[in-house]
Amino acid sequence: MKLSHRWLARHLKEMPEPEQVASGLLQMGIEVASVETWGEIYREIELVEVVERNPHPHADLLSLVTVRRASNELVTLVTGADNGYIGDQLWYAPPGAHLLDGRVLETVIMRGIPSPGMLLSAAELGFQDTTGDLWIYHGELSLGSRFIDEVGGTDTVYELELTPNLAVFDQSVLGIARELAAVLALELTPLNPPFEYLQDPGVAEVKDPLACPVYGLSGFEVAGAQDSPLWMQVLLVAIGLRVIHPVVDVTNFILWDLGHPMHAFDQQQVVPPIEVRKASEGEVMILLDGSECQLSPADLVIADQIGPIALAGIMGGQRAAISAETRHVWLESAYFNAQGIFLSMRTHRLTTDAAIHFGKGTDPEIVPVAAQATVDILRSCGAVVINGSSTMKGQMPIHRRIRFQPERIRSLLGVDWTNQVLSQALHRLRFEVDGDWITIPSNRHDVTTTEDLCEEVARIIGLDMIPVTVPNSPNVPGSRNEEVEFQERLRDLWVESGYCEVVTRPFWSPSRDVVMMPDIPTPVRISNPLRAEEEMLRTSLLPHILEVVGYNRSRRDQPVAVFELAPIYARKPDHAEEPMQLAVAKVLDDYPQYPKGLQESMAIYQLKGALEWVNRRLNLGISMVPQGELPAFMHPGRSASLLDTENRVVGFLGELRPRVASRYHAKRIGVLSLSQIHHTKSAISGVVPSPSRYPEIVRDLSLVVSEEITVGTLNRIVLDTKLADLKSLRLIDVFSGPWGRSVTLRMVFQSNIRTLTDNDVDIQMAHLIEVLRRHGIMMRER
Amino acid sequence: MGLLDSNEWKDLCDKLAAASTSLQVQEVRAEWIGRRGRITLALKDLSDMAPEKRRQKGQILNAAREQATRLIDERLEQLRQHEEDVQLLSERLDMTIAGVEPKVGLLHPLTRVRRLLEDLFLRMGFSLAHGPEIETTWYNFEALNIPENHPARDMQDSFFVDLPGMVLRTHTSPVQIRGMEAAKGLVPVKIIAPGRVYRRDDDATHAPMFHQIEGLVVDRGITLGDLKGTLMAMATELLGESIGTRFRPSYFPFTEPSVEMDVTCAACGGTGCRTCKGTGWVEILGSGLVHPVVLQNGGYDPQEVSGFAFGLGIERLAMRIFGLDDLRPLYQNDLEYLMAFDRYTGRPML
Questions:
Q1: Considering its fold, how many domains does chain A have in total?
Q2: Could you say which DSSP state residue B161 is in?
Q3: Which of chain B's termini has less CB crowding within 10 Å, N or C?
Q4: Element (H or E) spanning A95, and its range?
């Protein structure tokens, strides 16, 4: 909401400085988003007098007007205006002056004659005057005066941001003035007296008094002046409104001045009595903006005996709209039920200023005050107003009363302010304490409880005045639960393994699928997605991670190693599940670097190794098996299924098929997808082996094995042999020759109780070699 | 010296000096103290001498032998050192080439800031609580005193899903209700709830998915003063002793009274600049006393207990800590951008 400082002054007997206004608004919870000075450009516009007028020698429709400036300097301009003759005083924008639309004036040649600057119309200054093309001045200002003097100087315009609760009563200059009067202890200018409705019969009927508790309708004859008074134009223009016609301008003015929207109908177009009723099913009306509105019984309408003439509190209809020919007007001033208006506004998506006010709730007591203010203004500008018949239907609602509970206010705020301090504070906001009860002002629909009163007290006395304390409950250390702690460790371990954590948005669409994930759950669909490619929530994490890989690879030839631990979303019949998934991706391509890294064809072992390390560090209990069902996009020779301790498949690890990897701008990408990530309790082992004091004996064993026997099988055979003192087993070489595949294992023997001799180890090695021989595995000969 | 005259010593020293390889030194060794070396032979000759003379001469010869051995060893060591140097220098590397840094990843900046906040609140006695992202409209709206017709429920703001009565949670506040339900009427309830939330917005300062941390304290006699004290302590912990705080009245349907906390603008230090629109302050969180309706919906009697709640945006805090003006890159996952966060060495340390 825009607020003019000058307008504010109409409601306050003494006006605070703009800085005070800003700090007062801040304390009351009203945010000042910006402060601007209005009217600067009017400093450049000066009053001149026409001393000569001649036809343009080369153009029939143009004239040469010579004006005298205050310095007696004569300036001749080219104009197409019909008016502006000798003796007329006009507003002149010299070269260099700025116009409202941002143009900077200069000397232009018009049909061969230079024209320095411009003589202005009212519209060019942002105002309205219907007497002719140029705005002829009739006032007292002397020649050379600036237009800024005519509009009363510059103004400060605040852009206010109101929270929804404040918007109930603060969406007007009066509302803001009341807040400032309360917080800065200022006196308000009294409002004008209410309009005296005549209660004429046959004028208006309210069929739904719950939806419209108070309805005032008064008739006028309008004639004479076609322009609004300049002071009102200045205020409206300063807050960015266009001036159009006195009747329209005055309703706009009252709307922002008192926060009370009003509406005027052309009497000639209305067949009385006017009814306030719910629309019937299927009823249709054409609104002021020309749109057709399909009404339903949820909508409140103002109707005459023909049909609806306005969507109550939101927008008028075209049929009874005010026009230039309008002479007789019905002026409506009403109080509507806020919720009904809000719902209609939302249903029809008509967020008019009127609807925004009525939809929040207005002040019923302003109904007759606003009506009288309208009459006063119209009369003051010479639009002759003859009162016609009028009526007001309904009763003013009685003021709401709630219990005054000072003890509770004190205990919620944590203060020791006396009852007197509290009631005085509330009194400043027009809440009246009377013994155990407190009366709520008629416009404060937002206040219903003691907690609401706490807020009022805190606002008016100031949040700074509330002492700073801490809760006195015993301070016990907080905790994360084990699952969350575990997830954090999992993130840390992947980071330590060289992978960068990413955060992707969970929105997805099948159109983005490059890889078809196996076993995906039913997706949760978004009813109102921002874009088509975000129409559902993801059912797997890996595709997101791969998009991250593709995005980075398309930008630069750098290694990519990323992971994310985040939920996926599975739709169940009446709810959704959000299990966590882990997805990891690493580009395996060799890239230009010195010194060289691990060769491309082996790089998948880095991802595999990282998982093995994480698996060990967190007791994930995962085992990897190369057999089993793997997704079709995985490299069949370089992948493994991941099994949990109960041999259920919980994910996979390996290389993408190069054809798939190329979609992400890489030759080879290693990926890992893991669901059901949690501590495997059965695998937890808290025992750290004690170090042995005795020396180790190392033996390397080079074996020739057939292609069918994997290193995994070989390890299994060795470990199953259960050699008494074998402490560790490590693969140190694999290579193939014409004689088959050679595998070299390094075996470390060590005892915890004595020093081993070569003989001890020889015996164990001999046994092992014998076992291996039975599996067809021989020692390699040289 | 006796047996070895000065010429002989000079001869030895010259030969050692002339030797340029350890092999040549070994030759000198053989010549003097080897099995057929000059001193060795002289010592052998002693056996033919009279005991008195033998003893006298023997002492001299032994001393000479020791001396020669020492000189030879010294020269040998000198040459070995030299030979090693030559060898090692041939292995010379260009030590100006950048080293191979350990391949370590980095946590996402939002994770780092989230953990900073979590740890801070854990120290202040808050426990972590979590709730689902696909939330019922009851928990997300009604239970929080946001009735059917509240503007926040418009399609514009919330993502709805194809599950009836469910929505992508628009804030972490539903965990207030869930947290109170989990506490089953016991006090104190003291939780923080970090998590992802969703709104239909997408620009430089609004993302359709972002992260919040919700806080809730429910106990007997909780006051607005307690709220101020707790949040000011948090701000000091988070942003340093010198940080200024101020509270402004605000509005949230689920708190009454509602307040927002501002802290001094990081960009200008409080003097006013573009970041803070000239005010010197930037908003950091929204909070308030828990609305009685919300307490009731969580299973607590507002006449018996009171509470305060607050919510702050992790992105907004991350923008402040890392000095960012656009949050979209945080979700673009450009690794060059994400890894650049390893250069952050500011305060708070994280």
A1: 6
A2: B
A3: N
A4: none
Does an H or E element contain B91, and which?
A: none
Q: Are A405 and A413 in contact (CB under 8 A)?
A: no
What mean pLDDT do residues B313-333 have? 89
- Indicate whether A409 and A336 sit together in one domain: no
Residues A161 and A121 in one domain: no
| Chain B residue nearest residue A489, CA to CA | B107
**pLDDT tens per residue across span A327-376:** 899 999 999 999 999 999 999 999 999 999 999 999 999 999 999 999 99
Q: Which residues of B touch A472 (CB under 8 A)?
A: 221
**Sequence-ordered alpha helix ranges (H) in chain B:** 6-18, 22-33, 38-45, 51-89, 109-123, 137-140, 174-183, 224-239, 292-297, 314-322, 329-332, 335-339
Residue A677 has pLDDT above 80, yes or no: no
Same domain, A282 and A381: yes
Q: Is A383 in the same domain as A405?
A: no
Distance CA(A489)–CA(A485), nearest Å, equals 6
If DSSP codes are grouped into helix, strand and coil, which group holds residue A324?
coil
Q: What are phi and psi of B63, to 5 degrees?
A: -60, -40
In the beta sheet, which residues pair with residue A276?
A206, A302
Count of CA atoms in the C-beta half-sphere (13 A) of A52? 12
Closest alpha carbon to B227 in B184, B189, B193, B257: B257
* B197-239 pLDDT tens trace: 999 988 877 889 999 999 999 999 999 999 999 999 999 988 8
Backbone angles phi, psi at A195, to 5 degrees: -70, 140
| A315 vs A390: CA distance, rounded Å | 22
The two three-digit tokens of residue A620, written as one number: 């994930």
CB-closest option in A34, A491, A552 to B111: A491
Sequence ranges of the domains in chain B: 6-89, 109-343
Task: Report whether pLDDT(A224) > 80.
Answer: no
> Do B72 and B32 form a contact (C-beta atoms < 8 A)?
yes
Band of residue A614 on the pLDDT scale cut at 50, 70, 90: very high
Residues of chain B with C-beta less than 8 angstroms from the C-beta of A486: none
Rounded Cα gap, residues A775 and A777, in angstroms: 6
- Smallest CA–CA distance, residue A106 to chain B, in Å, is 34
CB contacts, 8 Å: B291 with chain A: 451
* A406-413 and A419-428 helices, crossing angle to 10°: 90
**How far is the alpha carbon of A730 from chain B, nearest alpha carbon, in Å?**
24
- Residues A577, A545, single domain; the answer is yes
Chain A CB contacts of B122 below 8 Å: 477-480
Query: Å from A526 to nearest chain B CA?
Result: 4
Q: Note whether A304 and A389 are same-domain residues.
A: yes
Q: Which domain holds residue A117?
A: 41-150
Of the pLDDT bands very low, low, confident and very high (cuts 50, 70, 90), residue A578 is very high
For residues A14 and A90, state if they share a domain: no
Interface test with A, best of B161, B186, B261 (most A CBs within 10 A): B161
A577: enclosing H helix or E strand: strand A576-577
Interface of B with A in 114-153 (CB under 8 A): 115, 118, 121-128, 130, 132-134, 149, 151
What pLDDT is stored for residue A251 in this prediction?
Answer: 93
Chosen CATH of B109-343 out of 3.30.1060.10, 3.30.930.10, 3.40.50.720, 3.10.129.10: 3.30.930.10
What is the C-alpha separation between A565 and A567, in angstroms, rounded?
7
Measured distance CA(A128)–CA(A248) in Å, rounded: 13
Encoded tokens for A615: 């698996």
Q: Flag if A529 and B277 touch (Cβ within 8 Å).
A: no
CA pair distance B28, A583, nearest whole angstrom: 72
Q: How many CB pairs under 8 A join A and B?
A: 234
* Pairing label, strands A561-567, A500-501: parallel
